[in-house]
Every structure is written in C-alpha cells, then in structure tokens.
Amino acid sequence: MSAIIPLSAQLINLCASVILLLAFAMLAQRRVMQLINLFALQGLVLCLSTLIVAVTTGQHHLYYSAGLTLALKAILLPWILHRLVRKLYVKWDVESLVNVPTTMLVGVVLVMIAFNVAQPISLLSQTVSRGTLGIALAVVMLAFVMMITRTKAIPQVVGFLAMENGLFLAATSATYGMPMVVELGIALDVLVGVIILGVFFFQIRDQFDSLDISHMEKLKDG
Amino acid sequence: MPPLISIDVLLIAACAWLAIGLAGMLAPRRLEFISKTLFPFGSVVSFIVGVTALFFLGDEPQATVLAIGLPTLPFHLRLDNLAAVFVLLLGFVSFGISVYAAGYFRKGEGAAPGLLCIEYHLFLASMLMVLLADDAYAFMVAWEGMALSSFLLVTTDHRHEAIRRAGYLYLLIAHVGAISILLSFGVMTGGAGDYTFAGMRAQELSPFWGSAAFLLALVGFGAKAGLVPVHVWLPEAHPAAPSPVSAMMSGIMLKTAIYGLLRVCFDLVGTTIWWWGVVAMAIGLVTALFGVLYSTVQSDMKRLLAYSSIENIGLLAVGIGLALLFHSFHMEILAALAMTAVFYHCLAHAGFKSLLFLCTGSVLHATHERSLGRLGGLIHRMPWVAWLALLGVIASAGLPPLSGFVSEWLLLQAFLFSPGLPHSWLNMIVPVAAAVIALVAAMAGFAMVKFHGIIFLGQMREPNLIHAHDAGPWERAGLVWLAVLTVLLGVLPSTLIGLIDGATQQLLGTGLAGRVAEHGWAMLAPISPDRASYMPMLFLATIATVLLLARWMVRRFYHGRTRRSDAWDCGYFFQGPRAQDTAEGFSQPIRRIFEPMFRMERHFPSIRDEQPYYSVKVEDHFWYWLYLPVARVADWVSGLIVRIQGGRIAIYLLYSFLTLLLLLLVARP
Question: What average pLDDT does this structure show over B434-448?
C-alpha cells in the first residue's frame, strides 16, 4: 500500500466527498429553490475538483472542461431553473413518494453498492483521482433515486442534471475527462434538454393546471 | 486504370438507378418529366444490366469489396454464374416493365410520381444488390431495402383501408422471414463470427446444424416467395400495388427468394441430406396445388394471377427439392436436369407473369374494373393487349411452343428418372408427386382459360366497356418486349440452356450443356434422344400450318356464307351479355370437386326473398387455422405486458434504475 497520499489527491477526494454530501442533501431537500441552489453548489464543487485535477496533471483540455462546468452547471442552468420556478409559481414544497428517512437509508445502501462495484474498476485506472470513481457512481445512483421519488417535474429535471454531474465526475476521475468534442456535445445536449423541458413545463401546466406528473398517467394507451 | 469488368458495370448500374430515383425527387410532381424521361432512362440501365449478365454468363466469378458497411465487415460483392442468371432475369424483365411503366402512371393516382420514381428505382437497385451480396450483412441490408421499398410501392394508394392492411401484412411476414434468414446465416457461420459467404462455405456444419440452417432458410425465403403457409400476403399485396409493381414483385422479387434458397442450399451449407429434398418437395407440392386451386376460383383478375404465382413458386420449390434429392444421392446429371428446370422456370415465369400483370394494368386503366364479372369482350377494344395476353396465358398454362412448357417438361422429365433413386420409399412416393405436378399443370390451364376467356372473349358484360381503349405506345412496347422474351424462351430452349448452364455447373459440378449441344438448337433432348426429346420449332410450324390451313379452308369453302352473330350466345336469341358464363360459374365445378379445400360462405336465394341474390365468398383456411390463433396468442401476451406499463413515470424510472443496478452487480468483474 502506498503510505502517503499526495495533497492533490486528498483535495480531490475532499471535493468528491463534498459532492456526495450535496447529493444526499439534494435527496433530503424539500424546497425547490433550495434544491436548485444545492445543484448550483454541486456544479461549483465539480468545477473546483476538475480544476485541481487539471493543475495536478497539466491536462490543458481539463481547464476548458472546468470553465464549461462553471458556466453551464453553476451559473446558466441554475439561473434558467430559477427563472422557470418564478414564472411558473411553483415555489412550494416538494412532496416525495417515499418519506425522507427511508430515502436516505436507501441512499446509504446504494453508496455501499456503488463503492463495491467501482472498486475493481478503479484498481485498473492509473489516474490520480481514481479513488473517486465509487463516489461518482454513487452520485449517479442518488440522482436517479431522486428522479424516482419526486412527483413534480422540476425536481426530476434537477435529478437528471445531477446525474450528469455524476457522470462528469466519473469521466474526470477514471480517464481525465472525455474528449473535448464529446464533452461539448454533452454540454449542449443538457442545455437544449433543459430548454425543451422548460417549454414542456409550460405546456404541462397549461394542460393540467399543475406540474404534478401523476396527471400524465392518463396518457398511456389502452 | 484497370479495365471495366462486369461487376463494376453492375455497380454503376445500381448507382445509376439510385441517381434516377433521386432525380425524381427534384421535381416530384412533374409527371411528364418523370415518366417520359426518368423511367426510360431506368429501362436503358435495366437493359445494360441484362446485357452485362448475358456476356458474363460462363465466366469466372468476379469479386469486389466496397468501403461502406460495418467497420469490421465492409460490403463484399461477388458476381458468379448463379447470381448472373438472376441478374439476367432482373435486367431483361425489368427493362420491359420500366418501358411499360413510362406509359402507365397517371395523374392523381396514389402517391406523387417523384416518390414512385425513387421507390421504384430503389427497389430495382436493392434487388440487384441482393444478387451481388457476398456477405450476410450486405445481403440483409439489400434484402430489407427491397422489402421496404416494395412495401412503400404496395401502399402507393394508402388512402384505402384495405391497401394499408395488405401492406401491413406484407411487411409483417417479410420481417418474420428476414429474421429467419438472419438466424440461418448465424447458424451457417458456425460460431466463427465470419459473416462473409466465403467464411460460411469454409465451415463444416454437423447434420443437425446444417438442417437447422436449411429449415430456417426455407422458412425465411419461403415467406418472401410465398410458400404455404406463409403465402397469405401475396394475394393481398399484389392486387393492392400498381400493375408494374405487381409485375416486378411477382416476376422478379419472388425469384430473389428462390435465388437465396439456392444460394443457401447448394452453395453455403456445404452438405446435403436427402430428407431436405423431401421437405422442400412436399411444401412445394402443397403450395402448387393450393395456389392453382385458389387461382381457379378467384373473381379478381390480379388475385387470380397472384395465386397463380404461388402455384409457380410451388413448382420451383418442387424442382429445388428434386435437385436436392438427386444431389444428396450423388446423381448429379439428374440433379442438373432438375436444376435446369428450376432456372428455366424462373426465367419463364418472370417473363410471362410480368406480361400478364402488365396486361391487367392496361385493362384496369381502360375499364377501371378488376372484377372479372364486369369485364368481357375486350378483344374488340384492346386487340394488342388481348393478343399479347394470349401469349402469356399460353406460356402460363404450360402449352407448347412457349416458355412455360419447356420448364414444366424438364421438371417432369426429371421426375421420370426418379425410379433410379436408391431408396425404396422415395421410389414409391416421388411418382405420386409427378402426378400432382401434372394435375397442377392442367388446372393452371383451366385458370388461364378463365382469365383470358372472361376478360377478353365473349361479349361485354357492362355497357361502359365500349369506351375501353387499347394500351398506349409505351405500354405496348413493354408488353411486346416481354412477349418476345416468352416466345424466345419457348423456341430456343437448347441455346438458352447452354447459356445458363454455368450456374448449374457451379452448383452441382456438372451440367447439361454438353448433352444438349449435341443435338443442335432445334431439338432439346436433355438426357438422351431415346428417352425424350422436344422440338419447339416443329410445334410452332405445325400450329401455324394448321391455323393457316383452317383459315384458308374457311375462306375457300364457306366464302360469303359465314354469318356473324354475338359471341357465346349459344344460338339463342334474346340472350343478353349477362347470361354468359360468369367467373364464378366457370369455376363452379372446381369449387364443387375440391370443396374441403376451400372455406366458403354461400348465400342461396330462397322463394320468399324479396330481392333474391346468390353470393359465394371463398376464403383461405390458413387464416382460421394458423393466423388467427397466432394473432390471439400475441394479443393475450401483449395483454399481460400492458400490466407492467402502468403509465407512472416513477415506475418507469424505477424499472430502468433496477435494470442498471442489476447489470452493475452482474457485470462486476
């Protein structure tokens, strides 16, 4: 076993654990505005961790990635979501399908599974940040659980975006990020996705006078 | 630059067809431009394809690799003699159909002309690629292209509910067949993962897996060809499509399925087991008998021809089965005889069936009527179509001296040698099959007499038929070309057998060319002149002499004393055209004799009826025995699946989450 972990790796691990903590916080958060703020904060920390990886390894394209993350996930998307929430008057509390303590317990189990699954993969990886792969997987899973347990449309979109954060973390931790083209493509996808979903929110609200997606159950055939 | 070889010419031709199709999209509504410029161009390309194949026949195989396709599996293409026989068929028959189509499409009928143009030429190009493909991937891509483009052509007039249903049925069965073909290819790679045909030839399959590959191929290609019980799409789709498309599907596309079956059975699998031949023959016999029985009782002229196509496909399957049987007992000369019959019948059927379908197209345009019961007497208004249809009818009925006779005669000759089989059971059963073939040939004659007699002869059953007009110059040119093909195939069998012999030699290692060439072009004696020989020119000369003599004698002895009266009025006065034999009445004896074979709904008039009427509706047993039960099971299963489709997004997300979790746990290294 290597005795001393370098400072950079410790910092990266710190960032990753903060991201995980934020993921838990998002899972527990009932207010939409706070949820979006947490998401913005997660983006900020993600940007920070990417920066640290970039500085340590000298990979230039990671600087661009970090910049992109900052612009998109910490500033632009939260701003769009804030505006949406204000325009749609949906600032009230989020009701979830399962109560918060149960969700948290499920989350803990998932984190254990994620670490267990990721361990053999991170052994194969040569990167300085390989220890965070398990965390990245856990973040993806927690975000997925958030999408499942929320009944309103906006928290589901936030869950979707948080899942993308987890994927990004996985990419930087396992292979120092994806190629720039792929990353730009994903960023654009996410942006366009949120804009389209925003349009849908208005449509859904016009149709059902509510953003509760349980109304859409009627849409299935038969 | 290397010299242009045949396969390059064919590839350029395929590209030219695609370009012509795309050119049609530039001005999709300009009918004049599309029909009078693009379709003739397409027909020129067809002609070049045919001539290329004609010059190639007998040469060494040519192969090439295209840089498109999968990363590890680019498109392999190969032109050998087997493919060339079918390319020849494709080129020359589609030439006639394209020339005809140039005069056929009218304004306001179905889809925009530009769409028809691109679908039509895509259909041609993909059929050519099916024949050239030398790996499973390229084959399947071309095969699906063929299925989809022909589906779009069938549903040209998609505003009618019945046509949409026909198209759906066709697409469904085409895809079931395609899956079966894909599985057959998968079996033939033997797990080696090499999907080129060369790789499949190199595999040694065990009898079990070889049989699996054969049966899968039989089902898959049978679904395209229309073998019983996967024939049901054929009588629905053919009447639905515009006539040039019906002609192309029946004349050419069904033959690509025969090509695929031959390619798998004799080329790719590598081994042959005798019972394969028995299976193919049994299915073929059932198909032939079924097809011809149903074709005799149809009242819609295109359905009649569609069932007749099923019959001919049955005959081809019988021929393939016989060739397999002889081949498995290493009786290669006899196998070559059966194989030659198969090739010849492919060519003959492509010619005469396209001709007949195109004739129905002209009748349809002239009268807007498909039902035989409302036609009649059209020979007075449409002499060109009627006389050319007569040639097609004679060939289709298997009468000398035209093409259908030669192939059926060859097939029966092959049957007559079957007592030589070293297997006692087969010795007893195979002659029965020969008897069934003879029955089928006779009934085909009956169906064709009905077709021609009810449409063209007698008196006009409806008053408005008087306005019918003959086919235009383009249509006539196409019909004449196909009729010429039919006559040439009839009178020059020895020459043509010499031409296609390369394919027989490629598949079986021996052919008939040497034996046939001994006797010159005028006499056909495939095995030896002591056994059987056929001189088509003699037949032609005799028939011509008798006809001319009869005409001369009538003129000479009854000059001025002949009296013209209404056709078929049997000497009675006051006999209207409605009193002629109807389509239903003509086939009533067949319906009566073979009653258990049909599912009939009849309504007889009774004395008390206010408005008495008689109706009979003949349906296919297979719908009720096979398709409806399958449909019910599918419905029931999908009813079960609906339960997990609750409509809640949370549940759907949970499904994907659990799947992800499960996969992560399973795939954990």
Answer: 92
Question: Which residues is B78 bridged to in the sheet?
Answer: B63
Average pLDDT over residues B241-248: 92
Two structure tokens written together for A102: 């149960």
Taking the C-alpha atoms of B9, B13, B15 and B17 in order, what is their torsion angle to the nearest 10 degrees?
A: 180
Which of A123-127, B430-434, B487-491 holds the top average pLDDT?
B487-491
Phi, psi of B373 (to 5 degrees): -65, -15
Q: Any idea what DSSP says for residue B321?
A: H
Give percent of chain B with pLDDT exceeding 70. Answer: 98
Residue B434: other Cβ atoms inside 10 A: 17
Q: Rounded CA gap, B331 and B326, in Å? A: 5
pLDDT, tens only, B75-97:
999 999 999 999 999 999 999 99
Q: Which of residues 626-655 of B touch A (CB under 8 A)?
A: 642, 645-650, 653-654
Q: Which of B642, B649, B668 sits opposite A213 (nearest CB)?
A: B649
Q: Is B665 on the interface with A (CB under 8 A)?
A: yes
Residues B98-109, mean pLDDT to the nearest whole number: 84
Residues of A in contact with B655 (CB under 8 A): none
pLDDT by residue (tens digit) across B355-405?
999 999 999 988 888 888 888 888 888 999 999 999 999 999 988 888 999
**Average pLDDT value for residue range A73-98:** 80
Q: Residue A97 and residue B645: Cβ atoms within 8 Å? A: no
Q: Which residues of B touch A141 (CB under 8 A)?
A: 657, 660-661
B669: nearest CA partner in chain A? A120
Interatomic CA distance for residues B451 and B370, integer angstroms? 12
Among the partner residues B653, B657, B669, nearest to A120 by beta-carbon distance: B669
Q: Is residue A173 over pLDDT 90? A: no
Minimal C-alpha gap between B107 and chain A (Å): 39
User: What does each C-alpha distance from A119 to A8, A143, B252, B423, B668 come to in angstroms?
Assistant: 20, 20, 60, 67, 9
Q: Phi and psi dihedrals of B66, rounded to 5?
A: -90, 155
Q: What is the pLDDT of residues B514-548, one digit of tens each?
A: 787 777 777 787 777 777 788 888 888 999 999 99
What does the block give as tokens for B615? 């109706």
| Cα–Cα distance for residue pair B268/B205, rounded to 1 Å | 10
In chain B, what residues touch A218 (CB-CB under 8 Å)? Answer: 647
d(C-alpha B459, C-alpha B436), whole Å: 35
Instruction: Tell me how many degrees the CA angle B64-B69-B74 measures, rounded to the nearest 5.
Output: 40
Q: Which residue has the higher pLDDT, A69 or B121?
A: B121
Task: Dump strand ranges (E) for A58-165.
Answer: none
Provide mean pLDDT across the span A116-121. Answer: 81
Chain B residues in contact with A148 by the CB 8 A cut-off are 650, 653-654, 657
The answer to whether B668 contacts A117, with C-beta atoms less than 8 Å apart, is yes
What distance in Å separates the CA atoms of residue B16 and residue B18, rounded to the nearest whole number?
Answer: 5
CA distance B123 to B110: 18
What DSSP string runs through B234-280?
HHHHHHHS-HHHHHHIIIIIHHHHHHHHHIIIIIIS----HHHHHHH
Q: Measuring CA to CA, which residue among B301, B240, B293 is closest to residue B452?
A: B301
**Three-state secondary structure readout of B42-95:** HHHHHHHHHHHHHHHCCCCCEEEEEEEECCCCEEEEEECHHHHHHHHHHHHHHH
How distant is the Cα of A94 from the closest Cα of chain B, in angstroms? 15
Beta carbons of B162 and B228 less than 8 angstroms apart:
no
How do the domains of chain A map onto residue ranges?
A: 10-219
